[in-house]
Design goal:
The chain is α/β, with parallel strands linked by helices. Helices cover 53% and strands 15% of the residues. Helix 4 links the parallel strand 2 and strand 3. The chain starts with a helix and ends with a helix.
Length: 339
């Protein structure tokens, strides 16, 4: 027992020392980073090399030595012919947008678009692999405005959707001259929703007053703690309808072939049904589309990565771990209930 007591005492001292060192390091990093503006870096990767490596791996696993020699000779001949003709291939700039409720990926998207527009021509193409279930109106409005810069520059824009582009996500997708969707991707949800709880009756029951003072008749329409009025509800609903009309008008501007009365109901459709309603132009995965384009064009993947401080990296790691825990817990819970 005396040994274990001494061991636990030593362990406690060690843990305390490690924690103290970490606190000192974080404090030093905070002081060094104070006042320093975080900068990012644009990363560019040629995707043709990726597809070529996949092809070569399969070749070496499947073909015999003689077949490999013949294949290498044919590829070398084709490369020599292409060099002789001096034909410049068009470029395809590939971007990714993984949207959350705040459309946080817009911060990187705007820099990526600024960069590619310094090089892209109308003979090139921009492909955006888009995944988003929508979110805040103003956030997705800004993300959509960034994509509109590509159209205004006269550069063809193709949107690829493998999983979901709904609500604000579809608002972004509709800007593309061509929308390509996987057969079972979720699209649509062209509507506006707002919801909030109201605990006024609970506060009233416990004799708690809550006052809202405003200057301007409609500075507050609905509130969480105060008593909501019918006039406030009507104004809030009117604002939602106005936003919905603007949403429909924006989509109609880029996809005039759509029947707004039929598709702007807030419903969602899978890719197969979305094709019939002209929400998309073609059914195909982004992998298939890019693999085809790699045969005749040079593909470049652009990603703007922000350099984060130590505090931000630690906080982000904790947030990701918490998100994974919650998602796993909800997944298990749903399986217990429904499967």
């Amino acid at each position: 027992m005396e040994f274990f007591a001494e061991y636990l005492g030593f362990l406690a001292k060690t843990v305390t020392l490690v924690v103290a060192i970490m606190v000192v390091l974080v404090t030093i990093a905070a002081l060094r980073g104070k006042g320093r503006q975080n900068t990012g870096q644009l990363q560019v990767r040629k995707l043709n090399d990726f597809f070529k490596q996949l092809h070569q791996r399969v070749q070496h696993a499947v073909l015999s030595k003689d077949q490999l020699k013949a294949a290498d000779k044919a590829e070398a001949k084709a490369a020599k012919l292409a060099k002789k003709t001096n034909s410049e291939k068009p470029r395809v700039y590939v971007l990714d947008f993984d949207g959350d409720i705040k459309a946080s990926a817009t911060d990187s998207l705007r820099h990526e678009i600024t960069a590619l527009l310094t090089m892209a021509t109308p003979q090139d193409e921009v492909v955006l692999r888009l995944e988003s279930g929508g979110g805040m109106v103003h956030s997705y409005g800004l993300a959509s405005s960034q994509l509109a810069r590509i159209r205004q520059a006269g550069v063809p824009l193709t949107i690829c959707i493998d999983k979901v582009a709904a609500s604000g996500g579809y608002m972004m997708a509709c800007i593309g001259e061509k929308i390509i969707s996987a057969p079972f991707a979720i699209l649509g949800s062209i509507g506006v929703v707002a919801q909030l709880p109201n605990v006024h009756r609970l506060l009233k029951k416990h004799d708690i007053d809550f006052e809202v003072l405003t200057a301007g008749e409609y500075k507050r329409t609905l509130t969480v703690f105060g008593e909501n009025t019918e006039k406030g509800r009507e104004k809030f609903q009117e604002d939602l309808e106005t936003t919905h009309e603007l949403f429909k008008g924006f989509i109609a501007r880029y996809r005039p072939q759509l029947d707004m009365d039929q598709i702007a109901t807030g419903e969602v459709w899978l890719g197969l049904a979305a094709l019939e309603k002209q929400l998309v132009d073609e059914l195909k995965t982004s992998d298939e589309y890019l693999a085809e384009r790699a045969k005749s064009a040079e593909l470049f993947h652009l990603h703007y990565a922000e350099k984060k401080s130590l505090q931000e990296r630690v906080g982000l790691a904790g947030s990701v771990a918490l998100d994974r825990f919650v998602l796993n817990w909800l997944s298990r819970l749903s399986q217990q209930r429904f499967w």
